[in-house]
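Note to self: keep these together.
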Amino acid sequence: MTDSRTPFPHGTILGYPRIGRRRELKRAVEAHWAGTIDEATLEATAADLRRVTRARLAELGLGRDDSSIPESFSFYDQVHDAAIAAGVLPARFAHLRDADGRIGLGAYFTAARGAGEDAALEMTKWFDTNYHYLVPEIGPETAFSLSSDRFARQVAEAKADGYTTRPVVVGPVTLLALAKAADGAPEDFAPLDRLEDLLPVYVELLAALRAAGAEWVQLDEPALVSESLAASSDELADAAARAYGVLGAAADRPQLLVAAGYAQLSPAAWTALAAAPVEAIAIDLTRGGVPSAVPGLEGKTLVGGVIDGRNVWRGDLAGAWERLEALQGLGAARVGAGTSTALQHVPHDVDDETELDPRLGSWLAFADQKTAQVVTLATGLVNGRDSIAEAVDAASAALADRRDAPGVRDGAVRARVAGLDAGDFDRGDYEARVAAQDAELALPLLPTTTIGSFPQTGDIRRARARHGRGELTADEYEGFLRDEISRVVALQEDLGLDVLVHGEPERNDMVQYFAEHLDGFAVTRHGWVQSYGSRATRPSILWGDVSRPAPITVDWSVFAQSLTDKPMKGMLTGPVTILAWSFVRDDQPLGDTANQVALALRDEIADLEAAGIRVIQVDEPALRELLPLKQADQPVYLDWSVGSFRLATAGAAPATQVHTHLCYSEFDVVIDAIAALDADVTSIEAARSRGEVIGDIAASGFAAGIGPGVYDIHSPRVPAVAEIGALLDRAVDELSLRRVWVNPDCGLKTRGYDETVASLRNLVAATTDVRERLNA
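Structure:
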């Protein structure tokens, strides 16, 4: 064991939002990518943000010198940070290493975004959240070495400013469990096989952090709670025992906090960590109960994650205190209060939301308020519960007020949900629908389309802002949007696409737009949360029963259809995604809330059909995202999530073609659920993984229309005709030809027009080539 003179603090958070209160990091990173600021300026901006964060956390009550402030900054992604530190860089980017073998910021960003013909790292969802991480590529020959000193430099930077912070690093087991086998690896190879080769790099990293001034290091190991990874719970627990046996025995290291959030630790992992020579363990007590006592806890600190790091509701301090008391009964040397996960999943500060209803605001806690609640509980652990009685009572009063507030429960909405029967979820025979749609739409072989949105240009954002400030009248703003839609429709006609979209210029966000038009939701002004890299979203707050007071999308769809003879999609966001990308009420089952949203969408589909729209897309990119990490919980989730989509769409006529879209998920895990959605056409991400999912689709016997994406829109690259053609050939070879569609991976909102037009021209050209070969 190393020097243990500095005990773990009584309260801490496991991480803090890193994009900046006003997305300062996003703007700086994107300015650097655009070439308007150099790397030194970007580094200086990032350093300033870190200093502001430390000062704010100290102001909220975390200690400047007791390691309670986490050093959790990232320029892009925490998994990528750990991989780069360990020297994990795909072979296609190996030439970007510095002369001494180090991996600098330029190589870091290039691997994340791709360059030229070199594809970016694959992205997928971080456990059951809306955060996307970059998937490391590791093979039998991957050479591990400490290739970045960034973690140590940030610790030293904090030390110079008078702070002793706790660096946060993704742990070795999770890094390998989340990685994919590099191209060319043997079929039976798994990155976790390389654990013993990786551990010496972590030993070296820990020594560097100790030398920089770190007294504690947090190693995040959420893989240990998951039952949805390639490795089993027992395999992961065994890996943890081996890993922390080595790291704990290192002669020159800081004290170790192993954090496992997002669900309850498996019994095997709990036993392994308790027995390991580490000083502290942080567990999630918001998504699981207090575990049983196991041998080895006597000399350790247990950090109870009693404040929810993933939702925005004000914590129940009375309930949190009871869980901490139960944790004290396990025989650990010390108990601390903490968040269940890092706070990167919530916005910065409720106090910034001056436009929210004050009553609603009193029910909420963003990162700053959650930090303050942790500090309150820590005070209680030191001075006794009576010292925090006033704060506990105030939290309980807020919970009671929320239960009784108007709009939280709507009798008419609840009666409609209670009256549903099996027929409301059944759309009828699929083959009969195909025949009706073929007659109605008369589409060519390999129909081409896009996912929905077109680039949200600076002109669009400025017009929206001017309208919000009252500088454009409603009529002027509507005229601007009609001009934009007309331009997008004409562009698609020129490109030769077969099924068109209106481009969604009126929508600020695919969920927020609907939240603004549905009862039961509130939206924020500054509630930004990182989604991936430099991208952030503002999740809406679903606080009450949901209903649709009036049609939402019909007028825009009808206008767009009037501009073309080709089919125009009506574009909706599905009930599961609306829930996944919002902060959802936690006072009733998610399935009940999903059905309320589904009924609102069902009404919208009926109105679109009545207005003559014959293709309607109901996007569900988050279907895989919400899949519970524990297998026992998955059947119930899949039942209500699939059911809510079917409830939304089952009222559509047979001749109406219902599409759905899913992106950046492990589709093989939920392929049966995707089929059960009973959509007529499903478009999915496939380009960044180079079509890996096509084999899974073919093997599953998936029989409906399918559009494996052939253009990766999360990279600025323009894919060549041959590249798109190769993916399309694979789809045609392995799937039913009459079912294959051609489309990008996702919507085009985040891209620029030059790259979008060039990419779509290549998409149409590749499709034309394949059609001609098939007809030859």
